[in-house]
Amino acid sequence: MILIVGATGLLGGEICRRLAAEGKAVRALVRPSADPARLEGLRGAGVAFTQGDLKEPSSLESACRGVRTVISTASSTFSRQAGDGISSVDEQGQLNLVEAARASGVQHFIFISFPPMAEDFALQRSKRAVEKRLVESGLEYTIWQPTFFTEVWLSPAIGFDFANATARIYGAGRNKISWISYLDVAEFAVRAVENPAARNRTIPLGGPEALSPLEVVGIFEEVGGRKFSVEHLPEEALRAQRAAAEDPLSETFAGLMLSYAAGQVIDMRTTLESFPVRLASVREYAERVRGAQAKRPPSSL
Predict the structure, then answer these.
(1) Closest Cα partner for 110 from 199, 181, 42?
(2) Which pLDDT value is given to residue 188?
(3) Partner of 214 for a Cys bridge, out of 4, 173, 256, 301, CB 3.0 to 4.6 A?
(4) What is the mean pLDDT of residues 209-214?
(5) Where do runs of H (alpha helix) occur along the chain?
C-alpha cells in the first residue's frame, strides 16, 4: 500500500493517477473539507481514501497503518484551510507524518522538497528541518528537490499570461533556471517507489535545459506569433517586500521570487542515468498552452 499525502493537489493528484494506472494499491489522505470534484476524479482512478490531517498526529497513525511507502507533496503555500500555515503544515505537519510513518513500520518515505536556495525564508527553513529529521529517522528515504515548476511559474497566477501576451519577470530576467514540469516530477516520484537507486538519497531535479526568463518569453513569442509586454520587478523591490512581510507566507513568496531572480541550474545527466525520464521542454509547454487557448471559446479568453 502506498499513502499519498497532498493527493488533492496538482502534483499529488498526478502521482495518485500514475500509481493507480500501474495497478498499485493507493491510499490518499484527505480532509472532510476536500474538493468533491477532485475526490471524484481520484475515486474514478481507483484511489482509496482515508480521512486525516497533518495537524492531527493520531489521524496520521491510522493512515499509515499497513502502508509500505509514503509520498508527501503536501504544502500550505497554494491551498490553505483554517489553521493551515507553513509552521503548522509544511514543518510540524510533515514532522508529524515522519514520526507516524516511523512508528507504523513504513519502509520508505518519499518527500517532495526543493533545492537549497541562497535566500532565507520560512518555507525553506521548514523544508530543511523536515529533510534533516527524515534523514535521521531511520526510515529509508528519497528526497526529490525539483526547481521551479513550469506550470506554476509560467502561468497567470505568477504574472506570466500567455493569453494576453504579458509577463512579469522577477529581477533582470537574465539568470538561467532549469524549469521542470510537475508531470515529470510526478514520474520521478512514481519511479522512486521501486527503484533502489532512489533509496537514501537527496536528488535535485530540473528540466532538459536551463533558460533565462527572457529566453522563455522569446519562446512564447515564437510559439504564439506575437510580442509580449514585459514588466520587471527589481530585486531591490523584492528585498523590501520580504523585509516588510508580516507573515511567513508573504516572506516565502518574496524569497521564492528572489531565488527565481538569482536563477537555478540543475545538471540532470547523472540522475537520468538511474531514472531515464523524458523531460518536457519549455517549448513543449508553450505549445500545450497555445493549444489549450485555441480550444477555448472567445468569451473565455
Answers:
(1) 199
(2) 98
(3) 173
(4) 98
(5) 10-21, 36-45, 57-64, 92-103, 122-136, 150-153, 182-192, 213-224, 235-244, 248-262, 269-274, 282-295
pLDDT band (50, 70, 90) for residue 33: confident
Instruction: Give the Cα separation of 101 and 89 in Å (integer).
Output: 16
Q: Which three cell numbers stand for residue 36?
A: 468533491
For residue 266, how many other CB atoms are within 10 A of its CB? 19
Neighbour order of strands in the sheet with 166-170: 160-161, 166-170, 229-233
Q: What angle do CA 89, 203, 17 make, to 5 degrees?
A: 65
Average pLDDT, the chain: 93
What phi and psi values does residue 109 have, to the nearest 5 degrees?
A: -120, 120
How confident is the model over 113-142, as pLDDT tens digits? Answer: 999 999 999 999 999 999 999 999 999 999
Q: Name the grid cell of 287.
A: 505549445
Rounded CA-CA distance 285/283 in Å is 5
CA distance 45 to 243: 45
Matching residue, cell 533558460: 211
What does DSSP say about strands 69-72 and 2-5: parallel, antiparallel, or unpaired? parallel
Residue 89 CB neighbour total at 10 angstroms: 24
Identify the band that residue 300 occupies on the pLDDT scale cut at 50, 70 and 90.
very low
CA–CA gap between residue 210 and residue 300 (Å, rounded):
33
Q: At what angle do helices 213-224 and 282-295 cross, to 10 degrees?
A: 40
Alpha carbon 267 to chain centroid, angstroms: 19
What HEC string does 42-95 produce? HHHHCCEEEECCCCCHHHHHHHHCCCCEEEECCCCCCCCCCCCCHHHHHHHHHH
For the sheet containing 2-5, what is the strand order? 48-51, 26-30, 2-5, 69-72, 108-112, 140-146, 201-205
